[in-house]
Model the fold of this input.
Amino acid sequence: MEFENILTENNDGILQITINRPKKLNALNRDTIEELHQAFTKAKEDREVKVVILTGTGEKAFVAGADISEFADFSPEEGRELAAEGQSKLFDFVANFPKPVIAAVNGFALGGGLELAMAAHFRVASDNAKMGLPETSLGVIPGYGGTQRLPQLVGKGRAMEMIMTAGMIDANQALQYNLVNHVCEPEELIEFSENIARKIMKNSLVAISAAIRAINSNFEDGVNGFEVEISEFGNSFGTEDFEEGTSAFLNKRKADFPGN
Ligand code: COA
Done:
């Protein structure tokens, strides 16, 4: 599949998706969101893809936000459509993706960029990364899930302050805030993320998909996450991966999960 705004490369089961609009600091325009949607849709079906690493081209920016030039003259109705379409096509799609998605935050992650990183299952940042939700400085609010996911990750008070001040925090503060799990040197960022991906890939990806559903259910209104856990736990007993995992353990050998 040919893309104009993103690059994709499968490295032994780890699909790296790189947002590639360096002249615009990888800002998310409509076409880029569409291409990301297509790349994730393909990755969902592709059995050769086990884990996705999402990053941005260069060392300056992960994604410097939604493309401001595209929505500067929007009406309230168009604004609502932009947020709704983006959330369903990309941000919720990534958050509920059945395979692990790691955001490797390699520079500015602002506005829609931080919202995209927060939609990923967890984040690793380079020590030059800067994160923030500057929307109120433009007279809008975050529209791609930022008002919901930031408080879930950093707590309500910190999220309030970040959104109200429209300020940026650096990688170490993001680590202290639990916004990112790890901070490393820029040149080590991809290798560091790949090492985590390889650890994940030793486990049952079927069980991991079930865990993603159970964990995410905690954040869905009107859903009892404990009930979802019970149901997903029970379903695991019917998988080939469970058969292989338990038999490998009992026979003191390494599991070779079939992924079913
Ligand atoms: N949308 C559209 N274009 C963007 C962009 C965005 N979110 N962020 C950066 N760009 C563009 C700039 O307009 C500039 O384009 P130009 O060279 O054609 O003028 C190019 O990317 C480089 O950005 P520039 O501002 O010159 O780089 P800088 O190093 O001086 O500043 C930032 C970097 C990230 C601080 C600054 O670009 C910025 O504040 N961007 C907007 C962040 C934002 O508010 N995002 C939330 C959007 S809801």
User: Anything to note?
Assistant: The radius of gyration is 19 Å. Residues 24-25, 27, 64-69, 108, 110-112, 134-135, 138 surround coenzyme A (CB under 6 Å).
